[in-house]
Structure formats: structure tokens, C-alpha cells
């Protein structure tokens, strides 16, 4: 009985050691994807706060300053940027990770993005791909057509997540 317990302890110790060594090896920089990691989306504050910012600008006008709703609008305008940044933090970590992964894979595999270069997002792609301008134009159009539905799903996910956070914090999303 004692011999069996020692074997179980030894097996557990050995498996723990292998797990630790495995995580050490896979966390090393040379084992990571590098530029092909999932990109981190940057918050587009102007897009999501435009209605609040318009209302704020009207309140800043001398004639409208006495409007009783202006203090509330000014507060919302200052809170909107933080809310959008908070939403993008969750979008990048778990909120839209599958859509972001699908978009990245589509660009890398279907669109010829090499070494972190996205055909859809940079002018350096023809140099990297070695294509002339006509071939590049065809590649971009084909890529855009192929990845368009995936991009729409990502955009919708971003919009849904940001609107959810804005509504939760009481910030208006649409113009009244």
C-alpha cells in the first residue's frame, strides 16, 4: 500500500515538472507567432461618441449654454471615451476574439499577407508580395470579396459590444 502511494506521488511530481517545462518552452518568444499574432484593435472613440460630442459642441455654444440638459450632456461626453476604451479592452480579450481571429486568418491565408503585412491595410503589400500593380489590384479585390463577410461580422461584434457598454453606462448611442 505504501509502495503504491509513493508511485502516485512520484507520477504527480513528474507530470507537474513536465507541465512546467512545457509551459516554459511554449512561452518563449521563438515559439510565438510574432507579427502573425492576433492584432489588438484600437478604440475608435470618434465613431462611437459622435452624437454625444455633437450635443456637447452645441452646449459649448454661447446661446445654448443655459439649456438644462447641458450638464448631463457634458458629463456623458467625458464618460464616453472611457466607456469606449473599456469596451475595446473586453473586445480584444474575449468579446470578439473569434471574429478577430477569423479576420486575421482570412487576411493572412487568403489575402497573401506575409510577415504581418495585411493586403487590406497597407500600401507596402505590393513590395512584400512582389506583385505588379494590376496583379495587386486583382488580389486586393479578390481578398476584399472573400473576407468581406468575415469583416462585417467583426464590425457587428465590435458595434454590439461598444453599444452594450455605452448603454450600461447610460450614454446615448443615437441622436435624438
How does this model look, in words?
By secondary structure, the chain is mainly alpha-helical. It has two domains: 32 residues; 136 residues, no CATH class. 69% of the residues lie in helices and 0% in strands. The chain has seven helices and no strands. The longest helix has 36 residues. The termini are far apart.
What distinguishing features does this structure have?
single chain, 176 residues, mainly alpha, 2 domains, 69% helix, 0% strand, signal
Short recap of the structure:
The protein has 176 residues and is mainly α. Helices cover 69% and strands 0% of the residues. It folds into 2 domains: 1-32; 33-168, no CATH class.
Q: Secondary-structure blueprint of this entry?
A:
Layout: H1 2-26, H2 45-48, H3 50-60, H4 70-95, H5 97-110, H6 125-129, H7 133-168
Helix pairs in contact: 3-4, 4-7, 5-7
Overall number of strands = 0
Q: Which class do the helix and strand fractions yield? A: mainly alpha
Percent of sequence in beta strands: under 5%
Domain count: 2
Shape: flat
Unreliable residue runs: 28-34, 122-126
Amino acid at each position: 500500500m505504501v509502495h503504491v502511494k509513493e508511485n502516485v506521488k512520484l507520477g504527480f511530481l513528474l507530470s507537474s515538472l513536465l507541465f512546467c517545462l512545457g509551459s516554459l518552452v511554449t512561452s518563449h518568444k521563438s515559439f510565438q507567432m510574432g507579427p502573425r499574432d492576433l492584432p489588438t484593435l484600437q478604440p475608435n472613440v470618434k465613431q462611437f461618441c459622435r452624437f454625444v460630442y455633437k450635443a456637447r459642441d452645441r452646449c459649448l455654444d454661447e446661446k445654448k449654454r443655459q439649456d438644462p440638459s447641458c450638464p448631463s450632456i457634458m458629463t456623458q461626453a467625458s464618460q464616453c471615451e472611457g466607456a469606449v476604451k473599456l469596451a475595446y479592452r473586453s473586445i480584444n480579450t474575449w468579446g470578439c476574439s473569434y471574429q478577430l481571429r477569423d479576420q486575421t486568418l482570412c487576411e493572412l491565408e487568403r489575402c497573401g499577407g506575409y510577415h504581418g503585412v495585411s493586403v487590406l491595410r497597407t500600401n507596402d503589400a505590393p513590395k512584400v508580395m512582389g506583385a505588379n500593380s494590376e496583379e495587386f489590384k486583382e488580389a486586393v479585390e479578390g481578398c476584399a470579396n472573400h473576407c468581406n463577410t468575415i469583416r462585417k461580422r467583426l464590425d457587428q461584434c465590435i458595434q454590439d459590444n461598444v453599444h452594450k457598454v455605452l448603454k450600461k453606462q447610460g450614454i446615448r448611442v443615437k441622436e435624438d
